[in-house]
Design goal:
single chain, alpha/beta, Alpha-Beta Plaits, 3-methyladenine DNA Glycosylase II, Chain A, domain 3, 3 domains, four-stranded parallel sheet, three-stranded parallel sheet, 15 helices
Length: 430
Amino acid sequence: MEESFLNSVTLNDQLCTGCTNCIKRCPTQAIRVRNKKAYINKAFCIDCGQCVRTCPYHAKIPTYDSMSVIDNYKYTVALPAPSFYGQFNNLEDVNIILTALKKIGFDDVYEVSAAAEMVSAMSREYIQQNKDKRPFISTACPSVVKLIQVRFPNLVEHMLPFKAPIEIAAESARKEAVQKTGLPSEQIGIIFISPCPAKHTAIHAPIGNKKSNVDAVIAIKEVYPKILPFMKEVQNSPEDLMISGKIGISWGASGGEAGGQLIDSYLAADGIENVINVLEDLEDQKFTQLEFIELNACSGGCVGGVLQVENPYVAKAKLKRLRKYLPVALNHYDGGDYTDALWDTKVEYQDVFKLGSDINESLKLMNEVETIASRLPGLDCGTCGAPTCKALAEDVVRGIAQENDCIYILRENIHKLSDDLGKLYDSKKK
């Protein structure tokens, strides 16, 4: 099953010490430690990046493209994420960043924040037209979308079925580039400058879309040192390239997307543990009056992505300062057909955690899990290589672990074996 899943984090076996820090922080229990090395179950992983943050040995490696990818195309367009703007000190004009991006090798730029303003406007109308499906859950964070898809079947229908702003931006950027250059589409590279590796997974294995319009994903931390000297060079005379306002740039931090809905009945949560708590409460129907729920896997929102360079809360403060004197929005949706902005494939629940092939087999195996778990100490210490005793019991049922992997069970069995050998020795002496 794992082979059909794509993930954005890989493991460096040489750096991994099998310390078990990662298994305790993974929100979907996707990591195990076996033979003193961690491994990631691709089917369970939601690309949240928690293991990258947690690993003290830097053995978890986020996946993204190198800057050299721009050499693969005759014409390239950079798509900077809104959170990118929060990485720089004393930034007064976004045009400085956009102009500097052209200096480091891109032929043009297109702000993702501009597309975010369009998504905000279209989703406001969509939510008003579909009041019976409220509350709607934001789908801008691919880790949250995947989490709902594999763990919260009753909430799939509440996901806002709009393409992420990077996809809207990529479509618009490609059309403009084709018109401007006359080049065929395949010779134009649309490159997203990303705060997190989950976007890399999202373009290669999109959820809700048949195919992504983004050709590559480059990490903000890779672009940051390259762009700094050019920002100084152009700071007095940048090109006028900015096409977004306060709403679009606000998407870079937690609460920005929800604020763009221009309503009061919303909830915004960030940090994957908080997100799971909100989804569990939502599944239990504890929220009845909300219209919109914004969820970000990273603390602070996209500014908290593992591919950033700045402290997420400092970056959030910088964005707040930057947008202070900007117009509310520079991209306006006046109503009409927004079909092209909606998902073009149906998103369905994927029960990756199921134990059996059908309900009867699953119930039987679940009973086995409970029986095995009852024999385990219930300490959830992680020394067995699984995050909890129940997770170990499930691994035993799946055939990928043994009860003796639990050090307490192993110790009891050794003591029992020692006692049995002692009794056998005594009986032979008599």
